[in-house]
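Q: Okay, next protein. This is ADP-ribosylation factor 6 from Moesziomyces aphidis. I've checked the sequence twice, so it should be correct. Can you predict the 3D structure?
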Amino acid sequence: MGSSLSKAMGKIFGNKEMRILMLGLDAAGKTTILYKLKLNQSVTTIPTVGFNVETVQYKNVKFNVWDVGGQDKIRPLWRHYYTGTQGLVFVVDSQDRDRIDEARQELHRIIGDREMRDCLLLVFANKQDLPGAMSPAEVTEKLGLHRMRDRSWFVHPSCATSGEGLYEGLSWLSQNVSSSKS
């Protein structure tokens, strides 16, 4: 009863639920972002082997966020998480110029999969607080995003430890999601 009532209220007041897959190279800040959004505090993390999943409520959207480890040995498993994804949050370590090309290759491999064809793409240009961090414009260029004409995408600067930029990214996702799940 309570479940059907909350679904009905959601339809009346526009509550949405959105499945988010958060990917990126290892040490980009994915888990730190997840728990900053969930707990509003910076947590000490260890490399994610497997995944973390949390629900984050922001405005009228319930984001079901899947944070999957980014080590190269785990990346072939990413495709098992694609089904039903409405938004891909790809996290980039903006200071890691040595691996931005590797990040570009992985991103294009992900979005090239037919299961990910219709999902929104939010890129967090993370670690903006560090010296020498690439700007969002530079991250956009290095990831080759301007060549993507068939998908909605957005690059936003972020700092996972302070939370800067994270909610703006969620706002973009919530404003651009086309269908709500009932």
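A: Here is a summary of the prediction. The domain at 16-176 is CATH 3.40.50.300 (Rossmann fold). The longest strand covers residues 16-23.
Q: Noted. On to the next one.
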